[in-house]
């Protein structure tokens, strides 16, 4: 059986309270007992001195010394023979030899003094004083400390349970509300308590719920966009396939191949974007930029290349970088059409390699610029998923992707990555000299 949290906390507090009382009470009791011992010894000594003075002083010896009822006196001569006994020591027949005595169930503590007369030692005087008051005080102190420790533990436990119950009511309400929620409900867990650690816990859970809802919304949007991105090309493929069954024109066949290739790249972008949200990793190589140009020429047609591609070297994942630039080309082609102009210029600026992709289209509407790189952003002039993947690739390379409208018209994308000379200063284990297959 698992005890509730408030009960376990109350038990711990009760145990701490008991140990504290026992510790403090034990120290106080020890000091008090020591004081009582000293007080008793002083009293016994004073009693012994008074009685011995009465025996030693001839004038005082004429009258019997006053002996308290809890005390006793035994007088021995110089030969050790008992010559007088009084008080509690009347029942002791032999001479005393110890500082402690138990008589008729009572404990006595004894003090010894010399019996002198006119400078001559006549014998020994023993004075006994009962320890019963001291024992009673000692027992009272011990019982008081023990009872106090037990009582404080009980009070602490009861108060702990009651206060824990009161303070945990908001948490219990929040837990009941959370248990009543269904997966379809997007309602935060209310908490009416103080802004303490429990409030922080409930706030953290609410934050987790909000992130979960955002992820669910993204997944729904992702599925919808996938259906949209794949549906249109598949419809076109179906139409061309039906026409091929009748005429088999060469133009339709080339369009089918192009649409299939675009569909393949779209699927690749979707997969890459999903990976980019989790575990996208790069495999860096040291390669000449001309290899990237050759790969791009196979992936996209009608692109004009400028810059010194043959003498520029890159430290990059050549496949990922080609994918990012190909996405820029594809989006530009959608805007400028088949007869539009697209160019890619390679430059070295401030320790970076920059790929400028320019087109002669109408440019990008100002309202679209802030959202251009958002995944699945859809509106007039939409640039879709490809730009989001391209920016992710640039950031993974330690660079960035920016866009602006050219004064003469058209748009310019700038994809920047660190220069190869700077990257070569990294650990050699991060690089390979082999070109990608």
Descriptive account of the structure:
There is one protein chain. The protein has 437 residues and is of the alpha+beta class. It folds into three domains: 5-163, Beta-Lactamase, CATH 3.30.450; 197-272, Orthogonal Bundle (Helix Hairpins); 282-430, Heat Shock Protein 90. It is built from ten helices and twelve strands. The protein has helices at residues 5-56, 58-61, 132-167, 169-180, 197-246, 250-276, 289-299, 318-336, 384-396, 420-423; strands at 71-77, 82-87, 100-103, 106-117, 120-130, 285-288, 303-307, 313-316, 342-349, 352-359, 400-405, 411-418. It has a five-stranded antiparallel sheet with strand order 2-1-5-4-3. A five-stranded mixed sheet has the order 7-9-10-12-11. Strands 6-8 form a two-stranded antiparallel ribbon. Helix 1 packs antiparallel against helix 3 (132-167), helix 6 (250-276) packs across helix 9 and helix 8 packs antiparallel against helix 9 (384-396). The longest helix has 52 residues, at 5-56. The radius of gyration is 50 Å and the shape is rod-shaped. The chain starts with a helix and ends in a 14-residue tail after the last helix.
* Low-pLDDT ranges: 379-383, 426-437
Strands side by side in the biggest sheet: 2-1-5-4-3
The major sheet is characterized as:
5 strands, antiparallel
Distance between the termini: 64 Å
Q: What best-fitting shape do the alpha-carbon axes yield?
A: rod-shaped
The percent range for helix content is 40-55%
- Strand composition percent: 15-25%
Number of helices: 10
Q: For the CA atoms, what is the radius of gyration? A: 50 Å
Structural class of the secondary structure composition?
alpha+beta
Q: Can you tell me the CATH architecture of the largest domain?
A: 2-Layer Sandwich
Question: What's the CATH first level of the largest domain?
Answer: Alpha Beta
Give, in order, the helices and strands. HHEEEEEHHHHEHEEHEEHEEH
CATH fold assignment of the largest domain: Beta-Lactamase
How many extended strands? 12
Average of the residue pLDDT scores: 80
Number of domains: 3
